[in-house]
Structures are given as C-alpha cells and as structure tokens.
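Lecture 7, part 2: worked example. A protein chain together with zinc ion.
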Amino acid sequence: MPEVTEPYLREQLEKRREELKHAIASPAAGMPPAPLLQLLKEVNAALDRMNSGTFGICETCHDPIEKDRLISDPLVRLCIDHLSSEEQRALEGDLELASRIQRGLLPQPDFAFRDWQIQYHYGPAGLVSGDYCDLISPVKTNGKLTFLLGDVAGKGVAASLLMTHLHAMFRSLSSSGVEIDQLLDLGNRIFCESTIAGQYATLICGRLGVNGELHIASAGHLPALHIGRHGVEQITSTSVPLGMFSSTRYTAQHTRLERGDTLLLYTDGISEARNTLGAEYGVDRISIVAGEQHGAHPRELVDACLSDVRKFSAGTRQADDQTLMAIHRTDSAAISLGE
Ligand SMILES: [Zn+2]
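Predicted complex, written out as structure tokens:
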C-alpha cells in the first residue's frame, strides 16, 4: 500500500489504543471488559505488524490486502479472496447497504427549476461509486440553484466514503449563501484538512440564475460542454483538484445559456471509456454526439450520449463510475413566466 496511507492509519490506531486503555481503566466500565481487552490485543497486533513491515499483507496468500478495506478497518488481516464465506456474505451485505445509502443521497431524477430542466445518469462500476452529483435548491425564494458534479480519485468503498463526505460538506457550505468561487475555496480547505494525504477529487459546480445566467467554477474537472445553436463550446478548468493544496483560490466564470442551450457535465468514466482495442472514447466524441442534440430534452441528450459510449465500449467491462448531467434551458418562454 502507498506510504501516504500507513502513517495516517498508524496515527488512527494509536489514538484508538489510548481511548481503549482509558475505557478499560475507567471504573464506569464495571465488569471485566473482555471485548475491549480483545480489541486492544488486535490493535496492538496491527501496530506490531506495522513495525515489522507485514501490515496490509494477507496472512493466507501474502498478497496486499485491498486498500479501501484497510482504510475502513485497519484491523483486517485477510484479503477478500481469503475471507470465510460467512465473512464474505457480511461484506456483501454491508456494500449493498452502502449502495442504498449512496443512492439515497442523489437528487430527484427529473429536476425542474424555473426555466431549467436537469437530468442525470449515475452509473457506478461496482455497488458503490466515487462519483458525486448533487442539485441544491436555494433557501431564499429568489435564490439560485446550485449544481455539483465531481469525481473522487480511485473507486470502491474508500472513494464512496469521500463522496459522501463531499456531499455533506457542500450541502452545509452551500446553505451559507457564499459565491461559487468561495464555495470551492472553503470546500477545498476543509477537504484538505479532513482527508488522508494523497486523496483528491475533481469537481465542477455552478449556479443557475434568471435569463440563462450561469456562474461556473471547476477544480481540475474535465471541460463542461456548452451546447449552443452554433456548436459546442468547452468550458475548461483553470485550477487544480480539491484536496491538493489548501491555499488554492478558485475563480468562477460567468456565461449565459440561450433558450434551447444545454450544459453537459460528465466524469472520466465516460470520456475515458475504452473499446476492445484499448482506444479511449474521448471528449471530442461526446462533443459531436452532444452537438447533434441541440434543443433536445435533456433526457434525450443523456440517453444519446450513454448509448454512444455503450456502443463504443461494447464487449468490455465498465471500468469506472460513469456520471452525466445535462442542464437545459428550456425553449418555451411559457415555463419561465414566474421569473
Ligand atoms: Zn489472501
């Protein structure tokens, strides 16, 4: 496992050992606390394995244990393949529960806000995803809608834990009403302080106002595509991902979507999907497919992109989480009378 993780886990284990010792010594614990003593023994054994250099190695096959499992439980001593069938069933149950919790965090699938219509597709490669996708309605009646789409480095359980962290963090930051660039500044600082060194996430977010007004900022995420009447324009990121440098300052770009225009966001599971020859799908190809859908309902756009990616990568296994979000400014003036 990478060296960045082990010092973090050691620190966590040492902290837990102190708490355990305290609980064991405390008279409030009452009866001889056998489970606590057993736990202390396991924590000590894990620290001994760190000292002897065998930490994170499966005791049966001597291959490395899955990193995300070690992060969620530093006491594990066996890789997934060498768990008993009972332990494997318990793990699958946990993952299914995690998957349900994660799906419960997603915004409603048919989202409408003033003259904006939003559709998304959220497709984890496994049971849980490291992709992040959210829509936050304004607190004030004349406020703006916030959209966010991100991708935590890595996949599986560890990435999904960080995804839920991003979700909670941006939900609470967004309610404070800060501008979109500040939202990223603050989010980045908190993310830097609270994550394991070496963990980062790309993120694109923005606010939708009246008359097609759009404020957008990106932390190292793939270019957003503005699908207009005269073609597709890329809105590229000018900054680094969240979690890299706590002093990073982000800047927002201001633009406008005409009636019938759409903003398309996606994660690298889409743009880096591969075909059976190993070639990459690419941003240009999404641009072409999306450009043909100007004026279409965002559901049709999302479906057209997905079906093209699937056609391209037919015969391969989906290697990474795939997320797409289409933000459409509707053509019909009637819907926006409330503005
Ligand atoms: Zn093993």
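The radius of gyration is 23 Å. The pocket of zinc ion is lined by residues 58, 60-61, 63, 78-79, 81-82 (CB under 6 Å). Keep this in mind for problem set question 3.
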